[in-house]
Amino acid sequence: MNSTKISHIIIAFLSLLTATAQHSTYINAELDTEKKVLTIEQEITYTNTSDKGLKRIEFLDWANAFSNKTTPLGERFSEDFLKRFYFAKDHERGHTTVQHILDANSQSLSWGRQDGAPDIIWVECPKILLPGEQQTFVLKYKVKIPSSKFTRYGYKENGNFDLKYWYILPAVFDNEWKTYSHKNLDDLYAPLIDYKIDFTVPESYTVVSDLKKEVLVASQEKDIKKLQFTGNNRTEVNLYINRGVSTFYNFDFNGIQFVSDIDDNKLMSKMKMVATSRVIDFLQKKLGPYPFDKILISESDYKNNPVYGLNQLPDIVRPFPDGFQFEIKQLKAITENYLENTLIIDPRHDAWLRDAIHIYLMMAYTEQHYPDMKIIGKLSKVIGVRWFHIADLEFNDQYFLAYKNMARLFLDQPLSLPQDQLVKFNQNIANAYKAGVGFKYLEDYLEDDNIVAESISTFYKQNVLQPTNSEKYRETLTSMSPKNIDWFFEDYVNTNVKLDFKIQSVKKDKDSVEVTIKNRQNNLMPISLYGLRKKDVVSKTWVEGFTGTKKVKIANNDLSKVALDYDQNIPEVNRRNNIRNLNWFINKPVQFRLLQDVEDPRYHQIFFIPEFEFNVYDGFTIASKFYNKTLIRRNFEYNISPAYGLKSKKLLGSASFFFRNQIADHGLYQIRYGINGSMFSYAPDLLFRRFSTSVNFYFRPEDLRSNKNERLSLRNVNVFRQRDELNPVETPDYNVFNARYRYSDFNLTDFLGYTVDYQISKNFSKLSTTINYRKLFLNNRQLNLRFFAGTFLFNDTERDGDFFSFALDRPTDYLFDFNYLGRSEDTGFVSQQIIIAEGGFKSQLDVPFANQWITTLNANTNIWNWIYAYGDVGLVKNRGTSPEFVFDSGVRLSLVADFFEVFFPVVSSKGWEIAQPNYDQQIRFIITLSPETLIGLFTREWY
Predict the structure, then answer these.
(1) What range does the record give for the signal peptide (predicted)?
(2) Which of 102, 359, 744, 778 has CA atoms 20 to 30 A from the CA of 674?
(3) Tens of pLDDT, residues 379-390
(4) Strand 501-508, strand 750-761: pairing
């Protein structure tokens, strides 16, 4: 054997060694199912694979992330408004108690937890650990398992356990320690480790894992059994422990055992086997052989990262066939598991690559096996529904729509941004979808359906079970691409600059068509230009990236239209200006649609829908609302709603026009211009007409996860009221200029907001401020404080009574900002409606208004759950009188905070109110009927 062959064998052998784990651990654990405690003795052998000497080794103890409300995990839950962790009982949270950490000679080692990160442990080595050397750590500790209601992992109410992040393991060292705290992002970054686990459980329990399992000891007398699990080259080990018979099903496929408990919609076993086998076969062909002999997918894994969309609906209204439903769920979960177990990528800072491969493979699978599946499934064939544009969309179109939703909300973020800096909707959905759609965009640009697919397969095979990153994939893809693809990584991945092109002008000659294309964004991403003859594609030309405008000539083969991205493979945020008709001056016909729909760029869409509202003067109003707002927000929106009052028998209605202009990513990031008008009754047989123009300036910080917001509003409000001959007012018509600055910063535990408001009109000028503070303490006690102060700079409105005065309990709302059920009522049920504004009092006192100045303080704190005690104090100053001190107090039932609440006065400046006559008329309530406002309660954790 010559020296060349020997050297090749040595290189191959060394390559094999690098693909094996450098660390190993032995875990001896016993589960106390009653106390929900794991007692663990663990031995970790750590190998220094870096080129640096290490004095300290760092470990991940993510089980301890649940130890209190102020850990990074607890703070994350608060930021996302997830109350269940904050209000949980102590025994539901869980923690780790370390008894000792020793070396191989049983000598105690110095150790501690990182400041501000109790789920990160550091341990001092006895001496500097040089490159290539090993150090053994012996740990003894107990883990109190948390409830599964926080992250779906932990102990369950039915007695089962889904264990994830349940033991201590070493962190990754890559020139520095990659120690990330648990933030419920499912992004544990751990090195490859060889595992040997002895696990003791009661005899009646079954344990499922993707490691090799054998029974070491089974004792019916002691009612316990000891199981041993072994496996090499694993980043983590999850255990699923069921009381009684296991809920997992399994079957074999080409040497791979598939194990899962994902809901199967009662499918026959053979159908499940066929569907899952098809998924695994697809992944092995697209990626490469799976290096392990078992794939384990749990329902908890899937629900933490499901296929979002209509298949999240209850079974009775799900529009997809059960077989497809099951298969697409397995595809999502298996692909994620496949990639996470084999591609060792930093999941906090480089997750976009794994996400891109994941979604790209899902799209490819759907195209191959379900090419005709629509985004709303079987509903696309239902009469009435099939007339909507959403019924035309393919199943894969959902990925682009989810990304476009965030782009239109100005909340999209770069793919390369760390996961813990992403808005939740981006982290869970939109960024992964944008990454996958980006691969399809790249595939279309390269004009070869095989290049991206082959680059993924090559990259996977070269890097399986080895630390890798997106830069290595960029090298692989670049080497296989016939075109320059730097734009994809520099503009598409590393920025949130949007794709938005338009056809600015067209010049048609006999033999050619000159198209002027405008790039409305600052990027160098390419765009495709199509020549069309009716609906047939005649030509397709790729225009390389440019800024500003560019003229492109294409052959005029009897073309009738030119279009940008006609096949809609490019994730443009605005496709409405992509088509130009060469034979007619109207580019797109007008389309009327009943009910709201997704945007169809081929038409000028006008939606209409009946609307019903109520107030005591008009009764129920029936309106026909005409608008252009689609399911995804547009920059320009209008709403025209002619209405008829059934009680007042009058023509009523409203109209509004708004335009949003995004000018930056942070700081002053958006300006919104608006015009609106309305006409409704403000008293029996009396109409008001309100017309307003406004401009709003929106400010936000660079960190989009921050809830800090600022807004400066400038508006001019004109009100015209019909005169009442029996009760004439001196100023039925008036004009008010209003400048208002608002600041807010809030999460579950802290809220701070303040407003400064200035108004000037012909007869008055006033200045006021409102400060709101809310604090949720660690003992679950909540304190709400509100301070209001207002003063007239000048006031010449005596002839109008208190119509323009500051109100102590119920503002007159002369700007018609509030949604009163009966704004002019002094008696009756609707008069008891209050809106917490101005003075914010709940009792109706003898001095309800102030025509000079007013200052009040409102406070409340919880007694039990949603029952609060409230109290208000204030000073009211009217002309010609001394300031009057006023107060009230009582009980507040906060059924839905700020949206549906009831106030029961107890004692006030009027005395003991409960004992006074007609007490039921003193009860006040808050009610919000706006669907958009209520929806905000449920979407705030996502945006």
Answers:
(1) 1-21
(2) 744
(3) 888 888 888 888
(4) unpaired
Amino acid at 864: W
The residue count of the chain comes to 943
The number of domains in the chain is 4
Where residue 434 sits, what CATH number does that domain have?
1.10.390
Which two three-digit tokens encode residue 747?
């999460």
* Signed CA dihedral, 63, 69, 71, 76: sign only: positive
- Say if 138 falls within a structural domain: yes
The predicted pLDDT at position 11 comes to 34
Judgement on whether residues 484 and 394 belong to the same structural domain of the protein: yes
Q: How many angstroms separate the Cα of 265 from the Cα of each of 93, 324, 906?
A: 33, 11, 55
Domain final residue pick, 587, 620, 638: 587
pTM over 0.85: yes
Is 301 domain-assigned?
yes
pLDDT band at 484 (very low <50, low <70, confident <90, very high): very high
Report the distance separating Cα 838 and Cα 830, nearest Å.
Answer: 19
Q: Do 221 and 253 belong together in one domain? A: no
Query: 318 lies in a domain?
Result: yes
Domain that includes residue 356, residue range: 351-492
Residue finishing a domain among 492, 520, 545: 492
d(CA 408, CA 82) in angstroms, rounded, equals: 26
Strand, coil or helix: what is 705? coil
Same domain, 26 and 108: yes
pLDDT digits (tens, 9 = 90+) for 129-149: 999 999 999 999 999 999 999
Q: Which of 307, 240, 943, 927 is nearest to 615 (CA)?
A: 927
CB 30 within 8 A of CB 149: no
CB atoms < 10 A from the CB of 633, how many?
14
How far apart CA 240 and CA 210 sit, in angstroms, is 10
Q: Which of 186-200, 299-313, 769-783 has the lowest mean pLDDT?
A: 299-313
Cα dihedral: 811, 814, 816, 822 (round 10): 60
Q: Helix 451-463 crosses helix 470-480 at what angle (to 10 degrees)? A: 130
> Do 376 and 460 share a structural domain?
yes
Residues 170 and 213 in one domain: yes
Please name every residue paired with 663 in a beta bridge, in sequence order, or none if there are none.
Answer: none
β-strands 512-519, 95-103 pairing? unpaired
For residue 12, what is the DSSP state? Answer: H
Predicted confidence band at 930 (pLDDT cuts at 50, 70, 90)? low
pLDDT at 1: 44
925, 901 contact by CB (below 8 A): yes
